[in-house]
Amino acid sequence: MESVGVSSRLCFILCVFFSAYFFAGVRSSSAELQILNAERRVDLSSHIIRVSLTLKVENIGTTPASELLLAFPPKQVDHLAWIQAAAVTGKRKKKTFLPLDVKPSTGPDGPNGTKHYSVTLVNKLGSGESVTLEVLYVLTHSLEPFPVEISQAESQLVYYHDSALVLSPYPIKSQETSFRTPTSRVESFTRLEPTDRSGTELKYGPYEDRPSYSFNPILLHFENNNPFAVVEELVREIEISHWGNLQVTEHYKLAHAGARQKGGFSRVDYQSRQHFGSSASFKHLLAELPLRVHSVYYRDDIGNISSSRLLIGSKKSELLIEPRYPLFGGWKATFVIGYGVPIQDFLFESADGARYLNYSFGCPFAETVVDKLTIKVVLPEGSEDPSVVVPFDVQQSLEKKHSYLDVVGRTVVVLEKRNVVPDHNTPFQVHYKFNPIFMLAEPLMLVSAFFFVFLATTVYLHMDLAIRKS
Ligand SMILES: *[C@@H]1O[C@H](CO)[C@@H](O)[C@H](O)[C@H]1NC(C)=O
Ligand SMILES: *[C@@H]1O[C@H](CO)[C@@H](O)[C@H](O)[C@H]1NC(C)=O
Ligand SMILES: *[C@@H]1O[C@H](CO)[C@@H](O)[C@H](O)[C@H]1NC(C)=O
């Protein structure tokens, strides 16, 4: 009794001691880094904003660092759809990239609600050493149309808020930020010394010796007539049939998320403007489909839409769809696309004899944001133990689906993700076990259905005869 008490007390003291040591260590290691050089390039040419950040980080402390923090203002972090980081070695053409793990930091927020993402360094950064990191992140819904309403003939102008200084928990010795706009029409921008503008590029900096968490708000107002194609909701159903086909059905709720259309729509005016490319509306959408796609259809609530073109190349297939009317700001279109692909291109057997589907996540349409994506993988009847491998966080659940030839129903793996961008179009896998006896379920159901019909007919004929006799 006595010894247990003593050892648990000792354990408690040790725990307190070690955790204090650990936290002090984390804090000091994050405070002991500095950024020698930061270069940020913000691409505003689409409605999906891509930011690449090159950081040269030095460890000026005495303990090796295994983690580095990236900082985001709270508003920006809500629109962050994608983030990746890599350590760069070598120069110019001989550069090699070592991908690094990035995830939301579990530590405390910075001043003014600044959120942190933590990059895990594969090779610890020793005292006095430096490393170059390439960070890429993608922001959605970050361009604010102003004016909020435009007529069909007007160009679309948007606001973009950011900071002229790179937000960082570390001091930055030297930095520069450049913004690329879609056209050279820039209505206004915040002027700071030094600012340099030429054509479609706007440059802030270089700035020297800025302390940690420096922030300098800026506002850009510029023309952006690119299609603001947002799929508010997309449900993709991928049905596996061991009889040779993979059937994909995609339900879209598409919206134009740009400045709202003011006044009526004139087709004549619309067609004459199309030539000048000065309209923010869009007429077509281009989807990249699997190579050996077949039986493609495209329909909406009214019926089939014939104005779509399937371009099958040697490396990829593309589907060009044209909704019934061009889409203006605030307008929506609901439609369904369906197609089949040969199963052997996407279904494989793993080493342990189990099967797995390897298919592309995300939305096949170019430069499109999906606010809410649901992927439903319908497994063949009799499948067991499904498990999913996706390279990012998704919500997972299971459902049952019954169709007319099913005996026990099919397991459906449901994956849900919000704020999806083209970077998410990477392969994911669904593994499952399958009992081949179920291959016989469908034919057996068919045979028994025929047999039942046969039996019923016979009985009916006999009854018929019996009636005629009497
Ligand atoms: C926090 O916000 C206030 C008000 O906007 C600003 O004056 C201050 O400089 C900010 N502090 C930091 C560390 O960003
Ligand atoms: C729509 O197109 C599909 C595939 O081409 C076809 O099978 C179907 O019969 C068509 N439906 C109508 C109503 O035209
Ligand atoms: C999945 O398919 C992609 C090509 O589409 C391929 O690069 C990748 O290696 C495949 N993954 C697995 C686990 O089979």
UniProtKB/TrEMBL annotation:
Key words of the record: Endoplasmic reticulum, Membrane, Signal, Transmembrane, Transmembrane helix
Keyword check for Zinc-finger: no
Pathway annotation from the record: Protein modification; protein glycosylation
Coiled coil: none
Membrane topology reported for the UniProt record: Single-pass type I membrane protein
Pfam families: Ribophorin_I
Compartment list: Endoplasmic reticulum membrane
Family as reported in the entry's similarity comment: Belongs to the OST1 family.
Name this protein carries in UniProt: Dolichyl-diphosphooligosaccharide--protein glycosyltransferase subunit 1
